[in-house]
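Expect sequence, tokenised fold; for instance:
***
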Amino acid sequence: MSNKQTLGRPLVLAIGAAAIMVAGCADMNMGNMSQTQKGTAIGAGVGALAGAAIGGDTRGAVVGGLLGAAGGYVWSRHMQDKKVAMERATAGSGVQVSQTPDNQLKLNIPSDISFDTGRADIKPNLRPILDQFASGLSTQPNTEVRIIGHTDSTGSDALNDRLSVQRAEAAKQYLAARGVDPNRVVIAGRGEREPIADNSTEAGRARNRRVEIYLGERG
């Protein structure tokens, strides 16, 4: 039996166990759990999935689960208030505001209000949204920000990778200028590698040109 076949069954079992763990959070009596406990439980499940994918076996799932439990986010009253404030600030703009399964606040910002095609200069319509996002974060030391830039499939990989990082960096510098500690902001550029729509259409390419901003609060 090949190594691939040998690892296949444990990997499937690990992923299945992690999925059950996450789903079980809803079936178990989570109403009696604290926000920190909920974040830890979900973080453990998500971490196990990541560990299985990276490690290729059940040991990877165990390690990933421990990392997820240690790194879980909480959904506090502050986070809920921030979500409401961002929903108000982005109403009618096309920005999607949501709570992720691991208790991060996510802003999905389309290209028509964030950056012009091929450029990394922040457009005027994005500034008040980033202003609202930055508001209050300087007094919340437990929060962390991740900014991820994405492009469509037009252009070379090298160009798209560089442009996506430049856009994330531009958003980071804007937030830093408004009091957000840059050491708490992590950026990444995914280029065209994570599309959310069909790149063969203009509408699809427009959806893929986006910036995602995540805010997480540690327990």
Q: What stands out?
A: The mean pLDDT is 78. The two ends are 45 Å apart (CA to CA).
